[in-house]
Protein: Crp/Fnr family transcriptional regulator
Organism: Hoeflea algicola
Amino acid sequence: MSRLDPSLIADLPPFAGMDRQSLEGMLAKAVSVRHPKDSHIFREAEKANSFFLLLDGFVRVVKVTPDGEQVIIRYIAAGELLGIAKALGRETYPANAVAAADCVLLSWRSSIWDAIVSTHPGFATNTYSLVGERLVGTQDRVVELATERVEQRVANAVLNLARQTGRKTEDGILIDFLISRQDISEMTGTTLHTVSRLLSSWETKGWIKSGRQRITIIEGHELMMLATARS
DNA sequence: CCATTAAAGGATT
DNA sequence: AATCCTTTAATGG
């Protein structure tokens, strides 16, 4: 296994404020793993033996209902931790994590979590922040699902994806991985047909450009108006 | 306003 | 060729 350079992770939020020696210590205990698109990184209810840092790619966190319906909880972008069951006081993973694109990750054994947190208080606080941000995000989505119309929820989902994973192109902000209308419907609690209709009507208005599994936001402002408009 | 169903055309493998 | 993704239209809650 090749040696990993500290600069690989030094600038990522979880390791902010960590000195070089500590970074090297973390990396010495890490194993790098590759996950091809659509492979599972971990599964719900599985024993949480490892936690991960996503170095490249995108991960989809998914819950599956008893009757087989999928709900997308969130997407995780490069630089974020995932599978941090230990930080949540859990022994098992709370959901499935699937590679939404080809992914490169670092993984650590969960058994060293406590030692890391006690020797690197900064890592602990960074993790609290991450957990807090995700909590706020899910709270927002609960409010959305309870009060907003489908059109607004879809607009929000698209904007959030663009903010999280967007890449600038000549046309606008491209959501930088393959995402189907089915995926968006699973994020927003609607059907792929409704998502399809909404996206094509936005395309007609010139707000977005979308092809098969690709979405580019051209006029983010209009979408934001829609997303926040009161019915 | 939105889900469901059905049908059909395009894209991907 | 088989499968998946998207669009469109009709119907009904």
Q: What stands out?
A: Chain A has two domains: 6-144, 148-228. The longest helix of chain A spans residues 121-147. Chain A has a mean pLDDT of 92. Helices of chain A lie at 20-28, 113-119, 121-147, 150-165, 181-188, 192-204, 220-228.
